[in-house]
Amino acid sequence: MKNFTRLMQYSLLLFLLLVNYSCTVQKNNNIDDILGIWTEHWDKDSDVTYVDTLRFYKKNNKLQIECINDSIYIFSQIKFDDSLLTFTNENICDPNERFFIYYTLTLINKDLLEGEIVNSRKTRVGMRFEKLRNKY
User: Fold this and answer.
1) Contact yes or no for 67/87 (Cβ under 8 A)
2) pLDDT tens digits, residue range 9-58?
3) Are 51 and 41 in contact (CB under 8 A)?
């Protein structure tokens, strides 16, 4: 009986260690799936008339974004968790206004991100990014 009790204690301890380990393991967030060149497409009912092309790349093992067709943007707060990509884009072309665009996008498949933006003027617009090519 004593051996059985000790076996149960060890089993319970092993179970608790495994549960704790599985809760602390970081998710595989598929960051490599979004690396590459992407072009934006705005919802048809939007009044946005420009199209930017973004490069998503890793630097020092962190996701980075740059606009390859315009240099008036500063990207920050870039997070990719599982399939959700969020980031902030500051448009610096007007020195009299700090204008921010907050992106929330879901990776639908390896070639499509869909979601919406909300800007600092409280405008909300649906949009998507389509991958032009992998890597960079």
Assistant:
1) no
2) 555 444 544 444 433 333 445 788 899 999 999 998 888 888 999 999 99
3) yes
| C-alpha to C-alpha distance for 39 and 132, rounded to whole angstroms | 7
H or E element that contains 21: helix 2-24
Please tell me the total number of residues recorded for the chain in this structure. Answer: 136
**How far apart, in whole angstroms, are the C-alpha atoms of residue 104 and residue 126?**
10
Which of 115, 120, 56, 53 is closest to 92 using CA atoms? 120
Q: For residue 34, count other CB atoms closer than 10 A to its CB.
A: 22
Cβ count within 10 A of residue 113: 24
AA letter at 45: D
pLDDT by residue (tens digit) across 68-125?
998 889 999 999 998 999 999 999 988 888 899 999 999 999 999 999 999 999 999 9
Phi and psi of 124, rounded to 5°? -115, 130
CB 106 within 8 A of CB 93: no
Residue appearing with tokens 């665009």? 101
Look up residue 47 and give its two tokens. 């009044």
